[in-house]
Amino acid sequence: MSRRGHVEEHGANNLTTSAILLGPDGSPIGGGPRDRKLPFTPPPTAPPDQLYQPFHPPPSPLPDKFRTLDLTQRLAVLRDRLGLWYEYAPLISALSREGFTPSSIEEATGISGVEQNCLVVASQVRDSLLSEDFPDELLPYFDSYGGPELLYELRFLNARQRFDAARHAIDYRLEPKGVRELARSMKDFPRRRGDDGWEAFTRDSPGDCLAFARFRQSREAIDVEDAVVELERALQVVETDAARARVELEMERAKKKAAGEEVEEDGEADAASRPDVPVVRLMYGEVAEATTVLLLPVVRETDGAEALAFAPRRTKTDVDLGLVEVDKGWTRWAVVPGWGPVAEVASEAVVIELADGRTLPWRSAEEERVLVVANRGRRVVVEDGIYVVDKEGRLVVERGRKLAEQGVGEAAAEVLIVVRPPKEDDDMISDEEWD
Question: Mind listing the domains of the chain with CATH numbers?
């Protein structure tokens, strides 16, 4: 075969084909290669009296009564404060979208940039209160000209916290400085987990959060007189009985120090930062290397006490072959080393899975899932124990001392050990949680 023939044959094998549209008579449509394209589908057409819009524009931030006003009239509303502050505050956002800067708005209306920001943010906070069904009879408290400064201080809280903080501000007739202190204490409270006395205060109580902030300030005070003043301020706002008892105890000690009397060390506060049960961190391969292991049923913290009681119990064990029989079927199981305290009560042992270890009533090194191994055979509460109880359908861990103070005599189960997940280059037992 000639070289030319080889090239022609090779080229023919690598030709690419394209679709050619043919008319009814079989002739190609279009005059050349560029015309051989698929037909173009035009976009949908709108009715003659409407414009076609491929998307819906965002809703206007302006109240209905301001939408028909021109620019001069809107500026006049802001300049003369025509209406309540939360009614004309959206005008500032609308002007910013139209290209106005804070300085140009200030020049046209006399409202400073700082006040503009306060009005816009406060109106957003007020809207969040409306979405949380804040009582209508309480909203007028923020309608005065000082309302924006009060609501502005709640900007860093979530919607539920804003609701609670707003009610507290009304109940105590707080000024902006007081609302700022309240909001900061509520924001800071979860971060103080593990501090002395923290567990006695309730996170969902604005008064307790504020009282704990003042409680901490009393401990940081250099002069005893200053500490007493802060504790007195804490007693003015504390809401729960446990928190009040903790503040009163601190007050008693502070007064003894002021009188020159000897005060015993606060062993209770130190113990609050440590668990009364073993807290272990599993090591990689520990279960595989264990001489004996235990297979325990697992329930989630959201399953409640009913699921905890319903979890299967061991009925028979064949040690030689490692066979275990239980009284009912179950879907979630955990394999843990055969620790002595757990093996002794294996027939009643159960595992509670907690999504966040910070919910435990002592200091936790970090946010992580943990397993709480508990004994359902011991439910009578004693002060030096740690127990699993049901609170509004959720399983939580509480100290026996706290449950006894609340009059709780029986729990769902007694905690035997807390298991933390494996972690690289970490000790099995945390120094912060164990002596």
Answer: 187-272 (no CATH), 279-420 (2.10.109)
